[in-house]
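Before any further analysis, we paired sequence with structure tokens, yielding the entry below:
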Amino acid sequence: MLTIVFNIYQNVLKKMQYSDLMVSSTDQKISFSKQINSYGKSNVTNQSLKVIIKDLQHQAIGIRLSAVYELEQIADNYPQYHWLIIEALCHFIRHYASGISSSNLDYRSKLAVQTALNVITRSNIKLNVENQQLDLSNTDIRGVNLRKAHLEGANLYRVDLSGADLSEANLCGSILTAANLAGANLAGANLSGAILSAANLSAANLTGANFTEANLYLADLRETILYETKFNRANLREVKFTTPDTSNNNSLNIQYPDSTSHNEPDTIY
């Protein structure tokens, strides 16, 4: 009985801490927004930006979180620094979400990573430097919210996005080789031309997802939701599918190219 009471107490305490953190973080964002908006454009210099970027590596998580918020505001207001900030935040995420499970990060660290991801994936992609690539490879960012994210052509090699919300995200041409997308929500996502060889998509929601011309060689699609999923000209060689259960009229609805036999999905390119 005491154990149950203690567990309830711990859960309530964590929720209260998280609630306080969100309030504090919101106040910080409002403060930084006012600060950046009050600047003249000449006041944000290369040197001052370098100082803020350096704060991303500070030992104190509060200062790192503050730096992320400041960079978010600068990225919105100063297009000339856009790609420099994007690269700095990608490096920040790779540093703090690589080689350590995200489940071991504290609340503020998770919030900092999520905020950095928001800046990267919600920014104006037209400002990205041509022939440059978002690099979030080898990171553990499971469970993050990347709904409607812009990750076109991103390097997501061996990224852990299990349980993440990627619904309606644009992952066109992205590299997801050996990525972990188990249990992720990819409903309505665009993965056309993406490389997903040896990726784990087991139990993922792929409703309405577009895999046109994607490479899914050796991918694991067992127990996935494949309603109206498009695999036109996709490479499905040696993909692991779960045999559809039609005992309750739950038919599998996959859109294949008209010219290709449904009985030979592994030959679709």
Remarks:
- Residues 2-42, 245-252, 257-269 have pLDDT under 50 and may be disordered.
- The chain has five helices and four strands.
